[in-house]
Design goal:
The complex is a heterodimer of chains A (about 290) and B (about 300). By secondary structure, chain A is of the alpha/beta class. Chain A is built from twelve helices and eleven strands. Chain A folds into two domains: about 220 residues, Class I glutamine amidotransferase (GATase) domain (Rossmann fold, 3-Layer(aba) Sandwich), CATH 3.40.50.880; about 50 residues, no CATH class. Classes of the chains: A alpha/beta (about 290), B alpha/beta (about 300).
């Protein structure tokens, strides 16, 4: 049997937000996620849905239940703001739970999984966590969870967020956290559906983080991450240089990064475990 | 409280660090210990230079604790500077005096008690020892009371502990070194050893960089001398002004290393949970020199 699961990638960015990222040389989140899934599983078929677009819709003839896995990207929306886009994605997340399609995602995705199932998300009182989430430590539940099989108990991950989960929903299990963000990973079971969500971004690379930093440079200077634009530009160059040449030990050492963020295999272990433990068994059971 | 600080380095290594604006490890440790316990009396000895002599009328058993600093020496080298320090640690433990060792100090105590040390196959760990994770034993140890399950510290080493002494417990590890902290007793004396340097601060690391720039360029930590100067300057700036959040973020560090109280917590815990109870027990029994660790247990 050929393993050809069908994924729905949900990219909640608005068109304007996607255009801003593209203008700065960053990938559109949906493409980045589909690329990561295909890197792990070359046979993967991916449809990308843009639910914030007025004309965003599933391909003709497809329903949520036709997919073997749903992967949610990050998003620049704020989940506790009651807008049409947010309401639409909360409804979509509830429908995905009810359709019992295994779901996975980064950042906004973890927040929407929690909010859809009755948990609470608020602004992080520590502000923006940007660049690299350091010393993410597995909880005892995380250490025993299939999503973290093969992962170290303490690791770093790419990150960019201002909100955090403050209250888990019933059926939510905290899997990892660090000093900045109490909840860095969560598993939610709701209405029979399973959603594994990460606050950090296994789909990012040093290059994507460089582009995202570039896109947000003025804001990051204002927030105090950089003394001035020049310092920010120098940082972007360092990330790009290390991405081009991962053997630049001097830059990796200066930035304090290692294989946790530089090795695609280490970085995406959680995604691989999701596919192997939830997506492929779901697909086999159906066919 | 009376502590004996053992400076691990021989004179030329100390002189070189002083020339680069640094403070030798023994003196640094003495300063940190004085800050933690104002009533402490500290003697510093230099057994790497010559056979150590204690003050007249003093024996090792008169000390409440022995602290061994870092060193450039390699404990697997069969030299008098190494041999004298192994013998000294053994004598302290046999007298029942608790021993704390950082880096070389942990390694020399390990070898003294029958463990092994070798060059790390991962090369040199320098600057920040990242993602040090406590083992279950470490999380349960009073030595790490108040410390998070994962933390960063400061470090500089080539060698690592490859085999712990019989009965030793590994308290912490990270991706670079499988033994970042351990505890054991040997012939009645209790050892707490850390591979990292909780007694360092950013300024000290900056001075090590200045002192060791050519080697660090050769080892690939810096592209050139200018990069090393920039790095040392960044550490100095952040040391002088810990509110420079932009620099801390760029270096990927937080209060684990910027907050001196938190950084040195395991040293304080050793003083409060190992040294002080042993002192109190000894006073209660009115014995001037005793097998302290045995009494504590």
């Amino acid at each position: 049997m050929t393993l050809a699961p069908r994924f729905l990638v949900i990219d909640g960015y608005t068109r304007a937000a996607r255009d801003e990222l593209k203008a700065g040389g960053a990938s559109v989140a949906g493409d980045l996620y589909a690329g990561m899934l295909r890197r792990i599983l070359p046979t993967a078929r991916c449809d990308v849905l843009y639910p914030s677009d007025p004309d965003g819709a599933l391909p003709k003839g497809m329903s949520l239940a036709d997919y073997d896995g749903i992967a949610w990207t990050g998003c620049s929306l704020t989940i506790y703001e009651d807008t049409k886009e947010v309401r639409g994605q909360l409804d979509l997340a509830r429908a995905a739970f009810e359709a019992k399609v295994p779901s996975f995602g980064s950042c906004w995705a973890a927040q929407i999984a929690v909010a859809a199932a009755g948990g609470i998300v608020r602004a992080n009182p520590r502000g923006r966590e940007m660049g690299i989430a350091r010393k993410i430590a597995l909880t005892p539940e995380g250490r025993g969870h299939p999503m973290y099989a093969g992962k170290a108990s303490v690791f770093d991950g790419f990150i960019s967020h201002v909100d955090e989960v403050t209250h888990l929903p019933p059926g939510g299990v905290l899997l990892a956290g660090n000093a900045f963000t109490h909840m860095q990973a969560v598993a939610v079971i709701y209405k029979g559906g399973v959603f594994w969500g990460l606050q950090y971004h296994p789909e990012y690379t040093l290059h994507e983080m460089a582009r995202l930093t570039w896109c947000r440079l003025d804001k990051l200077v204002t927030l105090g991450f950089f003394k001035d634009r020049e310092a920010g530009e120098a940082y972007v160059t360092l990330l790009e240089t290390l991405h081009q040449d991962p053997s630049r030990k001097d830059i990796a050492w200066l930035l304090g990064v290692d294989e946790d963020v530089m090795s695609a295999d280490v970085r995406t272990q959680e995604v691989r475990n999701w596919i192997e433990n939830l997506v492929l068994p779901t697909m086999r059971a159906r066919r | 409280m009376r502590l004996l600080v053992v400076e691990g380095n021989p004179s030329p290594a100390r002189e070189s660090l002083i020339t680069a604006g640094g403070v030798p490890g023994g003196r640094l440790y003495a300063e940190v210990l004085s800050g933690l316990t104002p009533e402490v009396a500290i003697d510093v000895i230099h057994p790497a230079d010559a056979e150590p002599r204690l003050s007249p009328g003093t024996t090792l058993a008169d000390y409440d604790g022995v602290v061994v600093s870092g060193s450039r020496l390699h404990v697997y080298d069969d030299t008098p500077a190494v041999g004298r320090q192994i013998a000294l640690v053994r004598a302290a433990l046999e007298a029942g005096v608790p021993v704390l060792g950082s880096c070389w100090g942990a390694q020399v105590a390990t070898v003294a008690a029958g463990g092994r040390v070798a060059k790390s196959p991962r090369g040199r760990e320098i600057g920040f020892a990242r993602k040090i994770a406590l083992t279950p034993a470490g999380r349960g140890s009073p030595l790490y009371d108040g410390k998070a399950a994962a933390f960063d510290s400061l470090a500089v080493h080539y060698d690592e502990i490859t085999q712990v002494p019989a009965g030793a417990v590994v308290l912490a590890a990270n991706g670079h070194a499988a033994v970042q902290a351990l505890a054991f007793t040997w012939r009645g004396g209790a050892v707490f050893g850390v591979q990292y340097h909780p007694e360092f601060d950013l300024r000290h690391v900056a001075r090590l960089v200045v002192n060791g720039t050519p080697a660090m360029i050769e080892q690939g930590f810096f592209a050139d001398a200018a990069a090393a100067r920039d790095y040392a300057a960044m550490l100095e700036t952040l040391h002088a002004d810990p509110t420079r959040r932009d620099l801390a973020w760029r270096l990927g560090i937080d209060d684990d290393v910027l907050d001196a109280g938190y950084r040195r917590l395991e040293i304080r815990n050793w003083v409060e949970c190992v040294v002080r109870p042993a002192m109190a027990a000894r006073r209660r029994r009115g014995v001037a020199s005793a097998r302290v660790a045995a009494i504590v247990r």
